[in-house]
Amino acid sequence: MSSDLSPIDKAKFVAAKKAVEFVEDGMRVGLGTGSTAAWMVRCLGELVREEGLKIRGVPTSTRTAALAQECGIEVVSLDAAKWLDLTIDGADEFDADLNLIKGGGGALLQEKIVATASDQMIVISDVSKEVETLGGFPLPVEVIPFGWQTTQALIEETLVSMDVLGRSASLRMNGDSPYVTDEGNHILDLHLKRIGDSRQMAMLLNQMPGVVENGLFIDICDRVVIGYGDGKVEVRDINAGTIEENIVDFVENENLFSDLTD
Asked: Which of 28, 175, 189, 213 could form a disulfide with 138 if both were Cys (CB 3.0 to 4.6 A apart)?
């Protein structure tokens, strides 16, 4: 398998492989959405099938739910699980304080609900997602369809007084139609380039009528597992203040991800 993977895919794979080591038998686990999280779901499925790991997974999107069921993971709703031991998910950006931008895959609302209902959150990522200051990746904001243009205008007006480098917002599209989330909402992507105060930004956005949730995950992530193309993984624990490095071996005949695409 390793000979067929790009360096970025190898980084995603080793990060996912390392992150599932934190999953223990009997846990209730939040399953993230996106290309990196999909590798993690496949790795968990392997543990379920081959090592008898017993977990209940709470997916953060319909596509993650379908993948988890395909991999043999028991899927339950968050209401059924009540509270989670751990959530593992990807990120579009993370900074030194492990604050995140998420929502590139369109599942930010469910992702944030699941992550905050967990004892701990682990983010899996390749090193390209690490930034000094959040904002290079467009910040997703989920809004209700009714009056979305008015909501966009309110957001852009508010951005005038914010410490950002860009102040435009665009409606996320799916072909010729607006992108629709699992909850039936739209997403506005804010092109900010740099966010001077992410905590203030998150608070102000969520105070606006029409805004359902924003993609800033502040003080939610506990660990980040960073994968590299050479098999190295780095685990940063924000609570313990520790950084550990390991090497994850590739399995040459591994075919877990042969049909997995971004």
From this structure: 189
* pTM of the model as a whole: 0.94
d(CA 8, CA 138): 21
Q: How many C-beta atoms surround the C-beta of residue 79 within 10 A?
A: 7
Are 87 and 32 within 8 A, CB to CB? yes
174-183: Cβ within 8 A, 24+ apart: 178/145, 179/106, 181/106, 181/107, 181/109, 181/142, 182/61, 182/62, 182/107, 182/109, 182/110, 183/109, 183/110, 183/142, 183/212
**Which of 50, 51, 93, 111 is labelled catalytic?**
111
Instruction: Please give the Cα distance from 96 to 99 (Å, whole number).
Output: 7
- In sequence order, what are the beta bridge partners of 122? 88, 223
pLDDT greater than 80 at residue 231: yes
CA distance 151 to 219: 26
- Mean pLDDT, the chain, rounded, equals 94
Within its chain, how far is the Cα of 39 from the centroid? 12
Instruction: Yes or no: say if 189 and 166 are a contact pair by the CB < 8 Å rule.
Output: no
Half-sphere exposure of 145 (CA within 13 A, CB side): 10
Do 108 and 215 form a contact (C-beta atoms < 8 A)? yes
Listing DSSP states for 134-158 in one string gives TTSSPEEEEE-STTHHHHHHHHHHH
**Angstrom distances, CA of residue 120 to CA of 97, 139, 155, 168, 241:** 15, 23, 31, 34, 15
| Tokens at 175, concatenated | 């072909």
Catalytic residue check, 70 = no
pLDDT at 209: 96
Give the pLDDT band of residue 5 (cuts 50, 70, 90): confident
